[in-house]
Amino acid sequence: MRSCTAPAGALFSARFRGLAAVAGVLAACLAAPASAAEEGPADAEPGWIPGLSFDFETFGYSTKSNVVNDFNPPSQEGEGTNGTSKLLARIGGEVMGPAFEALPGSPRLFAGGGVQFDTFSSERIFKVGDVQGNTELDIARFRSTGPVPNQGTPANGIADCLEQNPQTCEVADPEDFGGQFSQIGAQLENPSWSAALGVAFDVPIGRSFLLQLRPSLAYNVEEVAMSGSIRTVTEDPPGPTPEEQEFFTIHEASAKARSTDHSLGLGLELGLTLFRSSRPVRTSIYVDTRFLWLVSDDTTTFSDSLATYQVRREPFEIRGGAGLRFSWTGFAPR
Question: Does residue 159 carry a pLDDT above 60?
Answer without folding.
Answer: no
